[in-house]
Each structure stands twice: as C-alpha cells, then as structure tokens.
Amino acid sequence: MTDQPQPATGGNLLPTLVLVVLVALLAGGYFLFPRVAAYMSRQDCIATGHVNCGPS
Questions:
Q1: For the chain, which residues make up each domain, given as ranges?
Q2: What are the angstrom distances between the C-alpha of 53 and each of 34, 45, 50?
Q3: Is the separation of the CB atoms in 42 and 53 below 8 Å?
Q4: Model pTM?
Q5: Residue 22 · residue 15 · CB < 8 Å
Q6: What is the mean pLDDT of residues 15-31?
Q7: Residues with Cβ < 8 Å from 38, sequence gap 6 or more?
Q8: Greater pLDDT, 2 or 31
C-alpha cells in the first residue's frame, strides 16, 4: 500500500474568507476615504491660521 494524500472534499473555506475580508477592506476604504480627506483638509485650514474652516 502507498500513502497518498486524499483530495480535499470539505470545500475550500479559506480562499473565500480571504476574498470576503479583502472586499470588506476595499469597501471600507471607499466609504471612509472622503471623510478622512475632509478631516485632513479642515486640519490644514486650521493649521494655516484661518478661522472660518467649516465642514466642507
């Protein structure tokens, strides 16, 4: 008898899980980037000494 590895029959959950995590990271970045950009713009406005740096 030879000891040969058996084919995986339980499905590959790890690649699916990695794909879901990557899609979640991309979606989070897509929705979070405008807020971070607006915050940084406001901080730049304040750092230059302006006093009318309302939300944009």
A1: 14-41
A2: 17, 6, 7
A3: yes
A4: 0.57
A5: no
A6: 95
A7: 55, 56
A8: 31
Quote the CA–CA distance of 30 and 22 in Å, as a whole number. 12
Alpha-helix runs per DSSP H in 1-56 = 13-47
Distance from C-alpha of 23 to C-alpha of 27, rounded to nearest angstrom? 6
What the block records as the tokens of 39 is 């915050």
Report how far residue 28's alpha carbon sits from residue 33's, in angstroms, rounded to the nearest whole number: 8
Cα→Cα distances 2→5, 7, 9, 13, 29, Å: 10, 15, 20, 29, 51
Can you read off the two tokens belonging to residue 8? Answer: 């995986």
